[in-house]
């Protein structure tokens, strides 16, 4: 069976490169586009990108830790 | 009684009762036509009160139409139409009938001008939605539906207590804005919040919705929680508590969705998350915030139905619902995948999608009110939505590892329904004024500024990066996550068994010693008294055991 484009190693690499270029561009665009920060913290360069990344890392780690406490096998209630 | 115009809610309820008598093409035409008629009737009606009549000394008002109620009726009608299109060939008549009555109940709640008729339709919704869950006709759906209705009847009792006390206090049954400053209004607020999926009884939603059929969940996602949002918008605007409850729900939804393996349960948790955004808006209470909450309810119903249709199509075609069993479906289900991705982008409020123009209003309201912490948490939550629903759902279903499954796209009517809603998501995102012109207050907000688009893209794209960087931590496991429902599904069961065993043991002991006594003192006159005492004790115990088991099982 023909391998789908999404599953080829070369295309995965291309996707990563493309994604990183876009990410860098969205940060650099701040130089051209004037933001109108309302809160002081917003005025930091690249704040929204950094904030989005960090909060997501925190949420994933928190979920992982909580998972140790509350995860059960999926037939838990059937027993 | 003056009721010259026809009532969209009652129209749907009555049509629901007729559906079981129709079949084939007739049924299809009927279920597609009725929601159009409902839409037509609500748009041809003038604002104000209609259908008022006197009942037991109370003035009931079945229709109280204004911009807010028209907005909700509009989106409900559209959802019934597209939802019916999605399953008109596949769903059982029972399910469609229940769904119509359920939707009709929701519309009638939205239109109700007084608390009594609101309550009647509120309960009708609970019953009909349970029937939608039961229509899946599996053991799991039967059990989940039973738990669902018990919780909702409890909510109904709380609401009824509140309404009775309120009517007693104020002497009026008019449904207007209230303050939670008396027991009556607190009870009403609690009854409303229970349907919104607020803590502590949050678990009913993610417990029951994913057990409905592939199409039932689409209907379920639209009405109960959004009707609750509507009554909170009308009844408790500006109640600060709702901001905190909303924020809790937002993060609860994200964290539980991140842990979840069932694709439709991921989406069910994200309903709670999205309703959290709406409650925040209601809690902030400014015109911008209330507009935002209403607009978000409108767009949310559409993209959540789209996401659930996409998941429903996968379930319908593969029979599988666990992320661990799925993956790689983009290769053979391109239409379902693209529609699912558009829904996922809309829920994440990507620019040019409907979520962007509605959610931003709530965030903007927090900025206008200088609520730094609320704003920071809402921004984190926006990133989190992309994480748990925006990427996680499409990634684990349509991409990730190749599961080897090669199902086709679903039948034409299902594809059409998805395409209609996908177009709606983009249309509302590109032309926000379509939505803004329907909102209850005048909108002075421009979502598309270069700065706003850029900051939103930064936020979302970097949370996407976080997803792929943290992917090893998010490996899917065959697990469920314990929630508050553990108390009534496990703890209550164990506790009642334990109590019953001990009571039975105690009773045997008492009986034994009593019969010993009786034998010893057979000739004493006290015999009769003690015998009846023993009998009485046993009776009390048996009644106690029966009532306990009735309560706990």
Characterise the protein shown here.
The complex is a heterodimer of chains A (79) and B (553). Chain A is mainly α. Chain A has one domain (5-78). The model of chain A has no long low-confidence stretch (mean pLDDT 86). Helices cover 61% and strands 4% of the residues of chain A. Chain A is built from two helices and one strand; from the N terminus they run ααβ. Chain A has helices at 9-32, 47-70, and one strand spanning 71-73. Chain B is mainly α and 553 residues long. Among the domains of chain B are: 237-473, no CATH class; 485-552. Chain B contains 20 helices and three strands. Chain B has helices at 8-18, 24-44, 67-87, 93-111, 115-134, 139-170, 183-196, 203-208, 216-235, 241-259, 263-284, 287-318, 334-347, 354-368, 372-398, 412-430, 433-436, 450-469, 485-520, 527-552, and strands spanning 48-55, 58-65, 479-481. In chain B, strands 1-2 form a two-stranded antiparallel sheet. In chain B, 55% of the residues are buried. At the A-B interface, helix 1, helix 2 and strand 1 of A face helix 10, helix 15, helix 18 and strand 3 of B.
Give the SSE map.
The complex is a heterodimer of chains A (79) and B (553).
Chain A: H1 9-32, H2 47-70, E1 71-73
Chain B: H1 8-18, H2 24-44, E1 48-55, E2 58-65, H3 67-87, H4 93-111, H5 115-134, H6 139-170, H7 183-196, H8 203-208, H9 216-235, H10 241-259, H11 263-284, H12 287-318, H13 334-347, H14 354-368, H15 372-398, H16 412-430, H17 433-436, H18 450-469, E3 479-481, H19 485-520, H20 527-552
Antiparallel strand pairs in B: 1-2
Helix pairs in contact in B: 1-2, 1-4, 2-3, 3-4, 3-9, 3-12, 3-16, 4-5, 4-9, 5-6, 5-9, 6-7, 7-9, 9-11, 9-12, 10-11, 10-15, 11-12, 11-14, 11-15, 12-13, 12-14, 12-16, 13-15, 13-16, 14-15, 14-16, 15-18, 19-20
Give a brief outline of the structure.
Chain A is mainly α and about 80 residues long. Chain A has two helices and one strand, in the order H-H-E.
